[in-house]
Design goal:
With 192 residues, the chain is an alpha+beta fold. Helices cover 48% and strands 12% of the residues. It has helices at 8-40, 57-74, 84-100, 113-119, 142-151, 153-159; strands at residues 81-82, 129-135, 166-173, 185-191. Helix 3 (84-100) packs across helix 4. Residues 35-40 have low confidence and may be disordered.
């Protein structure tokens, strides 16, 4: 039997297998990352929730808020409103972690989340809480970050705390440690 005796469908399948065998070592991981992003895009109806944030940080922040509010709705809680003071605090902390290579709630100057929130104008009489996370590649999308927070008891408690009514979301491109993974991003949410 020669190649010419094989059906057209079998020939196409053979060519596809050969192309995949040759191309996979070069482009396979990128293909899987794009497929993964496409499958996680717009989780819970939140536009851009499967996108990597360095492409559009403000859109990723909006997607993160949308996902947080989706989780709160699932638990019968009112949505969080966005607060510019908390946004400023969260954004500054994410930037500082990216620029200064640390990953902690307490910054190198010794300031904790409430110190930073108050410095951004949050009233002294109000309490607060903070979640931080970072990821790269498909692990750095808003969908993956929020899913990780929901699997962590302390982070989940902050998201689902009925006393929390406002939030600031800050995302910075970068990582708190060296990484070869593409598109790292650091997330901070400050709750009021």
């Amino acid at each position: 039997m020669s190649f010419g005796d094989v059906s057209p469908a079998a020939r196409v399948a053979f060519v596809v297998i050969v192309v995949l065998a040759v191309a996979w070592p070069v482009a396979g991981e990128r293909v899987l990352d794009r497929l993964d992003a496409a499958l996680t895009r717009d989780v819970a109806g939140c536009e851009g929730s499967g996108d990597r944030p360095p492409d559009d940080v403000r859109a990723a922040e909006a997607a993160t808020l949308c996902l947080l509010n989706h989780k709160r709705r699932e638990h019968g809680l009112p949505p969080l409103g966005r607060d510019s003071r908390l946004d400023d605090s969260a954004r500054a902390h994410s930037r500082a972690m990216a620029e200064r290579d640390f990953f902690e709630h307490r910054d190198p100057a010794g300031r904790d989340p409430l110190d930073r929130m108050r410095a951004a104008g949050w009233p002294r009489s109000r309490g607060g809480a903070e979640n931080i996370a970072w990821g790269a590649g498909s692990a750095g999308t808003p969908a993956e970050i929020v899913a990780g927070w929901m699997e962590s008891p302390g982070h989940r408690r902050n998201i689902l705390d009925p006393r929390r009514r406002l939030v600031g979301v800050g995302i910075a491109a970068g990582a708190p440690e060296p990484t070869d993974d593409p598109d790292p991003a650091i997330y901070t949410t400050d709750f009021g």
